[in-house]
Amino acid sequence: MKNKTIKLLKVFSGIILFLLLTIVLAILWPLPHLKPPARYSTVFIQSINIIDVKSGKIFKNRDVVIKENIILAIDTSGILEAHPSSLVIDGNNKYLMPGLWDMHTHSNQHSEWLHHPLYIANGVTGIRDMSGQLNKRDSYWAGSKERLIWNTELSDNHRVSPRYVLQSSYQMDGAASVPNGFPEYFKLQKREDVDSLLRFYKNEKIDFIKVYEQVPTESYKYLALQAPKYGMHLAGHKPIFTSLEDAIVLGQRSFEHGRIFLYECFPNADSLRTSDNWRKFYSKSKGSMVKDYKPEMAIRLMLLMKEHNTHWTPTLQTLKFEAYAHEPSFLENPNLKYITYVRKKLWWDFDVQNNRNKNLSKEGKNISTDFYNAAKKQIHLASEIGVPIMTGTDVTDSYIFAGFSIHDELEDLTKSGLSNLKALQSATIIPATFAGKEKDHGSVEVGKMADLVILNKNPLEHITNSKTIKGVILNGIFYDSDRLKELKDFTQSLSSSLHMNIKVFFSLISSPLVRVQFAD
C-alpha cells in the first residue's frame, strides 16, 4: 500500500511539474511578428470611383497618385501617368473611400496579434482607445506608451496597426477604481488631486481624461475646468452624480454609449443622481426610463450639445448584445473564431449568462430590447438636431469584434434613421474633425494621408457595402485581398493557440486594474 501511494504521488508530482513547465513555456514562447507589405515609392490607382464623404457625390473614373503616404494627385482617368516603378492598382468599377475610424475601443497588451490585424482587414485605419494605465505598466491594459510606440512603428512601416488617434488616461471612476499601492490622487477624492493627476498625464502625453460614472461631482467640475489648461479635454461616460446639462456646459467633449438621454429624461432623474445606491436605483428604474421618457427634455439637451459641439458615440453594439444575449441566433456568431477561449470563458460567458437571465426573467422581459430601440430613436433625433455622431464599438466588450463590429454599427446607425452618407461621415470626417486631424484624414483629397479603403460596391447605395472590401491602403501601404485574408487567418490561428490563451489568462489575473474592475 505504501509503495502504491508513493507511485501515485510521483505520478501526480510529474503531472504537476509537466503542467507548470507547459505554462512557463507558453508564457515565454515568442509570438510571431506580423510584417506589413513592402512600400512602393508611388502607388497609382487607375480609374476608380471616389466617394466624397463630405457631399455624398461620386467622382467617377478617377486616377489617384499616392507618393509615400500622401495623396499627391487626383484627376480624370487618362490624364495622369504612372511612374514605371509605381504599384498600379486596377480600380475599374471599384469605389474609394477614406479609412474608417472606430472612436471607442479598448486595447490591451495582446492587441498586436488579436485586434490590429482584424482592424486593418475590415478597413479600420484609425481608432480612439478609451482605456489606459495608472503610473505603472499594466500586464493587461495598454497605455499611451505602448500606443505611441505602435504609431511610430506604423509610420516607419515596421508594424501592422491602425493609427491611434488621441491618447486616453485610465478610467477615472472614484476611489473604488484605484487598486492599493497607487497614488491617492488617481481617486480624485479631493480638489487638490486634480492638478496632480493632470500633471502626471500631461507627462504621459495624454490627450484626454476618460471619465466614468462615479467621479465625485466637485472633483469632476474642477477637472473639467483645469484639463484645458494642461492641453487635455474630458471624454467618456456621463458621471452619474452630475447632470448631463452641467457636463455639457463644463466642456466634456464626447459622451459614450446609448443611455445618456435615458438617464436624464425620466421623472426620477434627479433621484438617480442623489441615490445612496445608484446601481440598484438604476436597475429598478430602467422600465420607467423608457416608458416615462420625456422627449422635450432630450431635445433641450440635444440642442445644448449642438451649441457646444459636443459629440456622441452611442456604441449601439453594446446595447444590442444586452438585448439579444438570450437569442441563440445572435450568440452563434461566426467571428467567435477570432476570440481566445480564455476571454470567452472568463469574461463573455459570464456577461451572456447575466444578461440572458435578466432578459428571461419576469421583471426584466423586453427591458433591454426597449432600451436598445429607444437609443436608436434618440440617435435619429439627435442627428436631425445637429449633434455630431461618431461610430464606436467598445472593443473588447462581449460580442464586440475588432474591425467587424464597426460595419454592424454603421448598419445600426442607418436603421436608427441616419442616411448612408451620415453613417459614413460618423466614421470618417466627423471623428477626424473631432480629433483636430481633418487636414490629414477623414476624406479622399489631395494632400491628405493615404489611409484608404477600396470597395467592390458603393456604400452610399447600401451601407452594408462597406463590407465589400477589395483592398486597404494604410499609411501608403497596400494590403490586397490576399493579404487581408492572411491578416484574418493570423488572428484566428493565434486566438486558438494554447500559448496565446495562457498568456492572456496570466495577463488578466496579474492585472490589478482588471481585478478592481471585476470587483466593482
From TrEMBL:
It comes from Pontibacter locisalis. The chain crosses the membrane at residues 12-31. The lineage of its organism: Bacteria, Pseudomonadati, Bacteroidota, Cytophagia, Cytophagales. Gene3D superfamilies: Amidohydrolase (3.40.50.10910), Urease, subunit C, domain 1 (2.30.40.10). This is Amidohydrolase family protein. InterPro entries: Amidohydro-rel, Metal-dep_hydrolase_composite, Metal_Hydrolase, Metallo-dep_Hydrolase. Keywords: Membrane, Transmembrane, Transmembrane helix. It comes from the Bacteria. Coiled coil: none annotated. Residues 288-476 form the Amidohydrolase-related domain. The keyword Iron does not apply. Pfam families: Amidohydro_1. The keyword Transmembrane applies.
